[in-house]
Amino acid sequence: AQSVTQLGSHVSVSEGALVLLRCNYSSSVPPYLFWYVQYPNQGLQLLLKYTSAATLVKGINGFEAEFKKSETSFHLTKPSAHMSDAAEYFCAVRTGGFKTIFGAGTRLFVKA
Amino acid sequence: DGGITQSPKYLFRKEGQNVTLSCEQNLNHDAMYWYRQDPGQGLRLIYYSQIVNDFQKGDIAEGYSVSREKKESFPLTVTSAQKNPTAFYLCASSTETSGRRNEQFFGPGTRLTVL
Lengths: 112, 115
Hints:
The complex is a heterodimer of chains A (112) and B (115).
Chain A: E1 3-7, E2 10-14, E3 19-26, E4 32-38, E5 44-50, E6 56-58, E7 64-68, E8 73-78, E9 87-94, E10 101-102, E11 106-111
Parallel strand pairs in A: 2-11
Antiparallel strand pairs in A: 1-3, 3-8, 4-5, 4-9, 6-7, 7-8, 9-10, 9-11
Chain B: E1 4-7, E2 10-13, E3 19-25, E4 31-37, E5 43-51, E6 54-57, E7 64-66, E8 76-78, E9 87-94, E10 105-106, E11 110-114
């Protein structure tokens, strides 16, 4: 069965610093992987997705993620954090059927 | 603009009452989903529907019911059998024409509080 683990329920960075949010997945078949962002009291919005094309995926708002099959990881990065990046981020995997499995989420705090 | 609408934004219910949450989409998506979100637990799937007049239980369907009479509408009823219904409820939809590579589009959510 597929699963998603997000390491760290909270991550705090200074404005301008590198953002790194970790995601590891478990899947018996090639996965499709997604990162979503959620601002308070709102729905989720897609940041980027991996669908077996390029392993380095670029998304909106300067975020990118790299699919590493050998490490079963799909970590999300952004070179320079902005105050507006403060939100909760969810990694998700879909391997078959209609179900998407979401991680527990990582809340990103950005300090001025 | 195409998108998903959920209403109401906030909902208060007394114990023992049923309540229905609305979800409408104009994206012409075939698949629709209901999730429950609790702090620190991510999203848990309640029900999903692949086509009109068909739906499947998700991981936490007990105490909930749905219908899918129209392609654009997927209402969720929280019944009095749901032991702890206070949560944030999210509706989503997706197109399946390209298989499982497609992302889900989410509504703004409904926050349900049981008094």
